[in-house]
Amino acid sequence: MISSVLSQHMTRSYTRRKLTYRAMYALLALASLIAIIPLLSIFGYVLTRSLPGLNLAFFTHLPQPIGETNGGMANSILGTLSLILIASMIGVPWGVGVGLFLSEYPPGKLSSVVRFSADLLTSVPSIIIGLFIYTLVVIPMRRFSLLAGGIALGIIMIPTVARSTEELLKRVPMHVREAGLALGLPRWKVILRIVLLGHSRAIATGIILAIARVSGETAPLLFTSFNNQFWQRGIDQPASSLPVQIYTYAISPYEDWHQQAWAGALILVLLVFFMNLVTRYILSPRGSRK
Amino acid sequence: MFSFSPRPKSRKETHLGDFIFASLLRLISLGLALMLVVIAFFLLRGAFASVSRFEWSFITDSTWDPVQEVFGSAPVLFGTLVSSSIAVLIAAPLSIGIAVFLNELAPPKIGKAIGFLIEMLAAIPSVVYGLWGIFVLAPWLRTTVEPFLSKNLGWIPLFTGPYYGVGMLAAGLILSIMIIPTIFTISREIFKTIPTTQREAALALGATRWEMIKISVLKSSKSGIGGAVILGLGRALGETMAVTMVIGNRSEINLSLLAPAQTMASVIANEYAEATSDIHLSALIEIGFLLFIVTFLINAFARIFILRESRR
């Protein structure tokens, strides 16, 4: 097959074919450069535009009404951390559990259905998860709440954690499990104590990546945790979060708030990138050596 | 008789602890699998008022007017379709080109560095894209790109009318940037599975490197690339924040790409706060349900596509 296709090309002169190759090389290199421009632009603007708004007050103060200076996003930062905590309490055990089911038990109909659903759930737009929690939690509770936001983010975490746990545990050699079973340990102890604990570093990377992904999510929070300009009063009260606060400030008409939005964006980007880099370090050969 | 496997052959657990543990894992896994059904159910229940009131006119009617309580989602469906199409038309050739370049042509070190940067695009939160879109991309479009398009290509219906910076074009562009990493990463994974011998065979017969790429790489990964592009499309359809911030949020059908528009995701994000009447809320949830079904079908289709490719 290759030769028949090739013979069509070979009817052309060698110089022409060589030139085509050169032209395509240049074109594809150019495409790669074009794709990087937005990234550099976003980084550049987030860095330079955020600097004027970044000061101590940004981390320690509450948002101020327009006209008053020295506003901050302290409650939003705290809110995002609380949301991550609640989301992890749901997403981590559920996700790891499903990952264990997929990797440690014999493949069957259920496991392929679960795997397929997990993949599809990953690609459900996050705003849909927000709507779902709105109808499931917010409407019955009759108010937006930190809890609802945390649940929404938790659900988004589950499939990511499940699939990464599965992928990582599949690489664990079978003799590790055999060693445990040979000692007479029941299977559940082998799975929890040897397979899971023994590879907790690797599994942690999957969890951190899932957290990094949800900590920047805005859409599912709009109608679950909503927003709040004050300190958090309880788990059943509306909660502020960095992404929603950035959104609110960005679409406002006030210059001062725009500056705060950029500062918030810097913090959010740093948070997400820091988590990404940590996982890269853990997974790198140098990081995994004890 | 003494055959032994660390993974049990049968599902019957004899040890009580094992039985409880396995049942628990099976239960939560089943719960995850059922999640999609549960989501569909709750959305449909929330959308019931709207479904029963507007029936099919909800999809065909082109008036979206919360004040008069008339909800036809045609403008929103149109906006979703057009903005995602722009995104795919730009991002697909670009991402596949980059994947080819980094995997087949570039020196490995450069390939690794650029690949890392492009994967970083995926890590940027959507709201940060939106912020950049409002304050950098949209002003640039308004002062540089759109005057040019309007002046020189204004006779094409796509570029007629006044321009604001925000609008369909801005949404399509920002979506295209956001789906590059999706299409790029999957395409590169597919290229990596192609055996080196297949490339060597083409080169040995006298093909230039570009001919080798066409014959050995692109031809044999056609359906996988198709799957990657469809997954990118699925991502573009449901992307919310960045689009909401740059599309201008006007629920009208307008052929001009310079005009403000609205997508399914952006109308939900934009109107949730002002949805005071039950029917408005229900209509928004119905949009959500439609979006859920569309992305579900698209992703299921794409994954089966890619699965077929990788199993061959």
Total of helices of chain A: 14
| Backbone structural class of chain A | mainly alpha
Q: If you consult CATH, what is the topology of chain B?
A: MetI-like fold
By CATH, the superfamily of chain B comes out as MetI-like
Radius of gyration of chain A: 25 Å
Structure description:
The complex is a heterodimer of chains A (290) and B (312). Chain A has 290 residues and is an all-alpha fold. In chain A, 76% of the residues lie in helices and 0% in strands. The radius of gyration of chain A is 25 Å and the shape is flat. Chain B has a single domain, classed as MetI-like fold. Chain B is 73% helix and 1% strand. Chain B contains 12 helices and 2 strands. Chain B is flat and about 70 Å long. Classes of the chains: A mainly alpha (290), B mainly alpha (312). Chains A and B meet through helix 1, helix 2, helix 4, helix 5 and helix 6 of A and helix 1, helix 3, helix 4, helix 5 and helix 6 of B.
Show the helix and strand layout:
The complex is a heterodimer of chains A (290) and B (312).
Chain A lengths: L1 H9 L3 H37 L5 H5 L13 H31 L4 H14 L3 H16 L4 H25 L3 H9 L4 H12 L1 H16 L3 H4 L19 H9 L4 H29 L1 H4 L2
Helix pairs in contact in A: 2-13, 4-7, 4-10, 5-7, 6-7, 7-10, 8-9, 10-13, 12-13
Chain B lengths: L15 H39 L2 H4 L3 E2 L4 E2 L2 H32 L2 H16 L2 H28 L14 H26 L2 H9 L4 H10 L3 H17 L2 H6 L17 H8 L6 H34 L1
Antiparallel strand pairs in B: 1-2
Helix pairs in contact in B: 1-12, 3-4, 3-6, 3-9, 4-6, 6-9, 7-8, 9-12, 11-12
